[in-house]
Predict the 3D structure of the following.
Amino acid sequence: MNRRIIKSILIRKHTEWCKSIKDENVRKMVEKNSIITGGAIVSMLTKEKVNDFDIYFTDFETTKAVTMYYVKEFNRLHPIKVDPKLPPENQKTKQPFVVIEEDRVRIRIKSAGIIGENTDENQYQYFEQRPIEEGEEYITQSLAETLTEADQLDGEKIEDDKKEKYRPVFLTDNAITLSNKIQIVIRFYGDPEKIHSNYDFIHCTCYWTSKEKSLVLPATALESIITKQLYYHGSKYPVCSFIRCRKFIKKGWYINAGQMLKICLQISELNLTDIKVLEDQLTGVDTAYFIQVLNQLKDRQAKNPDFHVDMPYLVSIIDRMFQ
């Protein structure tokens, strides 16, 4: 697709989503302060399937307002089932809620760290060691298949059932997935340069801004996309980057040894036996297994304040979870 078509699709998508927001104040903030970046633009440039549109916000207040709005919407759509025989503290089901930690917005969800509209009370869908498509199908199960170029120009063929469009269907600590191919990332906010400072590979740095209605396609990103070469320009989260390489390689991308060494050098500077560091580094990794690893470590530490993670113990937990 060319620039004009991509820009038209992004404007149409963003406008339609904004219209679905019932709170006028939140809607106005989203209309002004949104950034669409990441894989969707890459997929459109290469005429591949668009899994979802990753949306960030330019400021803290918008991020906070949107998060609180959609967590409230999720809870409205999925009211808790209360057992009248049990006191509140013993109820199994607890709704997600928003936590503000200094300059960060987070969503707290049960013990597993994820929740979806079709998530069973005692069962979660884990994507690790399964085909990527299976994970995508779970998260976007109610979404339409990616559209042809003509379909997109005429308006997207979105779900035609009676459920609400752009409703929250999946929540994690760092992101909110809406039906109809919208994923809101709440982990980061700021201008495009600040957001991309947390990105790992240069090809994902194309972006569109709602305020200027501007589509920016950096030359370095386009070169990487054309050649399908992964170029690592550094990240605050090299562990996540290393794991993400699997997805790109499966799709036919290539990464040379030098780029992999750059990732390894950044990882070598981290203390991954520190639970907080490990948890931060797994931001953006699409697997609930890692959440379970972290929960095992946190539970052990909560029961024994003198407990310190060492590498053999961490390896044993990982092996147990990934068998």
Notes: The chain has two domains: 3-222, 228-323.
